[in-house]
Amino acid sequence: MMRAAIAATAILLTGCATDRVVLLDNEPGHPVGAIAVLDDERGETVLDTANTQARLGASGARVSALARPDPSFDALMATLPADVSRFDIPFPVGDADILSVQQSIIDQINSAVGERPPGVQIEVAGFTDSTGDEGSNNALSMERARAVAEALRAGGISIEDGDIIGRGEYDAQAALGDGVSDESYRRVTVIVR
Amino acid sequence: MSMKKLAAALAALATLLTMSPAWAEIGRVRNVVGDVQVVRGERTVAATSGFRLEQGDVVVTGRSGRAGILFLDNTRAAVGPGSRVSLDEFRYDRARQSGSFVTSVYRGSIGVVSGNIARSGRDNMRVRTPTSVLGVRGTRFVVEVG
Hints:
The structure holds 2 protein chains of 2 kinds.
Chain A: H1 2-14, E1 20-23, E2 33-38, E3 45-47, E4 52-55, E5 62-65, H2 71-77, E6 85-90, H3 103-114, E7 122-126, H4 134-154, E8 164-166, H5 170-176, E9 187-192
Parallel strand pairs in A: 7-8
Antiparallel strand pairs in A: 1-4, 2-3, 4-5, 6-9, 7-9
Chain B: H1 3-18, E1 25-33, E2 36-40, E3 43-46, E4 52-54, E5 58-61, E6 66-71, E7 76-79, E8 84-93, E9 98-113, H2 116-119, E10 125-128, E11 133-145
Parallel strand pairs in B: 9-10
Antiparallel strand pairs in B: 1-4, 1-6, 2-3, 2-5, 5-8, 6-7, 7-9, 8-9, 9-11, 10-11
């Protein structure tokens, strides 16, 4: 009885021997990335090659290569929702006035919404390049997002107020540094998810 | 307090203010196959497409249930049959697209394509299992428990 209890406790503590994490290939054109099994005592174990796995347990991670991905992964990954759809709308320097949101963009967004199951979320995010200061860029990016959201709403697309976002110059700063004029960041990105 | 420290404190405060509050939406259930339920505190509700998830929700699938979830940071997740997955922490600054994301897989399986939070800093996205903690550094992976 005592022995059984000790064995049961040991199983609880070590976890099930079948627990594992498997790093898969990324979608075409994107790097594989990595997964780390974090362990303060033994140090981390990093998987950075596609189709490698780490068996997980209290006694540490055991890494091995898979000859091929398990067929059950296909069924699981087939349940993933479709990736978000993105639509970029460019803006002139320092300006939040759109000349017009083209009907073709509205049509494309509507068609992306129609391809998805009910309960679609539409995010409208404004960006600026990294010229000018952070505060005014935050304000300008929000004005741009509001301008596009209003045009889309007028075109019959439903957008919640909380999904209208000003992302300022943060993306441009991270990619190009401060004070760089770059038209690719003077935009609003509409995300359908 | 030096100007530098004051600026740092103000920046931290601004980040806190723009972080989503605990009760706010963190993502939506998008695909549902079979029996999929969400446990929120004392309540359990059947999830349908468009169901809005919050931090602390636990997604539970039946023996042939499966669920696809899209999070606000564009992370995509698939929860396999017979699973119990807790969305422990999801803090996301939607302006800076950075934050932290912690999920626990108690049983079953989850497949993930990581998004902006994982990209925003080393191990900002973590997945816990009964024995281990995983730091997600991108991008597509599967975790199985039990």
